[in-house]
Amino acid sequence: xxxxxxxxxxxxxxxxxxxxxxxxxxxxxxxxxxxxxxxxxxxxxxxxxxxxxxxxxxxxxxxxxxxxxxxxxxxxxxxxxxxxxxxxxxxxxxxxxxxxxxxxxxxxxxxxxxxxxxxxxxxxxxxxxxxxxxxxxxxxxxxxxxxxxxxxxxxxxxxxxxxxxxxxxxxxxxxxxxxxxxxxxxxxxxxxxxxxxxxxxxxxxxxxxxxxxxxxxxxxxxxxxxxxxxxxxxxxxxxxxxxxxxxxxxxxxxxxxxxxxxxxxxxxxxxxxxxxxxxxxxxxxxxxxxxxxxxxxxxxxxxxxxxxxxxxxxxxxxxxxxxxxxxxxxxxxxxxxxxxxxxxxxxxxxxxxxxxxxxxxxxxxxxxxxxxxxxxxxxxxxxxxxxxxxxxxxxxxxxxxxxxxxxxxxxxxxxxxxxxxxxxxxxxxxxxxxxxxxxxxxxxxxxxxxxxxxxxxxxxxxxxxxxxxxxxxxxxxxxxxxxxxxxxxxxxxxxxxxxxxxxxxxxxxxxxxxxxxxxxxxxxxxxxxxxxxxxxxxxxxxxxxxxxxxxxxxxxxxxxxxxxxxxxxxxxxxxxxxxxxxxxxxxxxxxxxxxxxxxxxxxxxxxxxxxxxxxxxxxxxxxxxxxxxxxxxxxxxxxxxxxxxxxxxxxxxxxxxxxxxxxxxxxxxxxxxxxxxxxxxxxxxxxxxxxxxxxxxxxxxxxxxxxxxxxxxxxxxxxxxxxxxxxxxxxxxxxxxxxxxxxxxxxxxxxxxxxxxxxxxxxxxxxxxxx
Length: 771
Hints:
By secondary structure, the chain is mainly beta.
């Protein structure tokens, strides 16, 4: 309470210090936004430097307005400088229209050849990396969606052509849309990005160390979308088929309606199909003084139908206030998994799982241009699962019949505020509260001497309250920027309570636009899923047992990183994180019986050093390549893991090269070729071998780029997933699951002219579901 009182005390005192500001957008004569433009304010009468800013990817800039007379100078590489006086600016502001500063191109002509300055690919402002080449990408390459645009950028890559990763992100990355959290579901988020035409992407931002207002622990990839005029009807349809030893289909559609003060966005996605997986296990299992060699082969087939529906209503109350209401529903009424197991000790067993999952969520959010944003979210999740295990040698009666269910109700509310102060200071602060009520039921009735019956009923109430405060200030004529935050967090689950202060800070130094440096630090806590903490047992077959751990504790992360951006193109990053009470789910060969136990445990710590280098290479308009090289040192240490001690470390690394060759511009046709090599690495106690990857594809854009067709092949040599093993004391295991990684995909996308912005509120489901 003392901490929250301090926040509101500072809020009250800060409001009296608010200062006026100079705002606008920098564009070229074609109306395209110019990112990274120098915006410098000088005080009169002696033209003394006052303050400085860079325009962001939308061309937007904001400067503090001096108390005396002033003028501003705006300049960007490849353009003539623009001067505007205080009097001229105030006349523009009186019109109540957007203030656009139009820059003229600077070029030199020689015998009909025009040479224009080459802009850098990236720029940095307020610690945020923005990409300046989005227009060039859409004009020169076959780009059918925001998803493909992301993959065309340096720093961003995908191994399987769908999931998106960020180079140098110490704790992984998460995708935001217009500054909103995008954690509803990873697969649905990818479908959403594939439904956005590239022309609608206004900008893409990278935030390696986000402040508390972003409400995430991971690095952020923020996709900012353009606004469209009212009275517009827009849409897009996409379909795909994937052959991964079985056929899978996907169909998605999006519709958008713009009215004078109301935007309505709706969408629907449907997926259906089967997936096949195979895992071969070889172990030397020690019980007492006896050593038994165990061979186990699992072959599973999963069939699922998944529906996703969303609707968003954005209402503009007035020019300074807006309100949004968002609904999202995800339904899997049919999800069946059939597994056949052959075990050298227990024989043959068949397992059938039938489940259904339902998720509904609604949110209401209010924002004010003066720097206030508040909202409340409610979500409801329910899942039911029925299991039947049959012993092939005694099929008359089921060896085990199981039923489990989970119901989660979650409420989140928050308020974030930002106050610009005098002399270039900016103050940010906010509070948030989250309530989770989790009800779990599990019943296993065993009729097999090798499995045990179990019944679990638990109810958990979880409270998470946070408050943060921080500030930002620029020095050295805007070339040095410092941001610092302190977040207080109170966590309570039943009788467990923990209070912690979590600091974060970012320092950005720009001696010149050829050299940009950023150093950052953050501390945060990560919580286990609601199901991991349950005291339960679940069998795949008599040898493989999954267990929960009620004593599992949250993990505390401390993350530091350094980033160097050279000539606005090349990046070098160094990161390190140290995680105390790191929790991982690891297989363990029981010392008392021939049972392989998979159970989450806290270990002493995990740490990772990572060094990454990214090099983009373009040759004219026909060849585009992104090269990523990294080296890492991983370490896992525990003083009591099933009464065993380990301290494992591994030096690893790899290289990935993504190449695009343009064969034709009219129509646009291109070939993509991606190769990757990865040194042996660790995954907890698992030691993984060398890994290779080869992807290839061809794509074309037709009918004024409204129709795109692509054919892609992934892991063509089927070498991505190496065999993994454990050698610790008497723990001896090998696993090979590299059987069905190769697949082909055909994608067709058709977009209608015009497209309406969709700012979808998303929901965090990362801790829902059965493990």
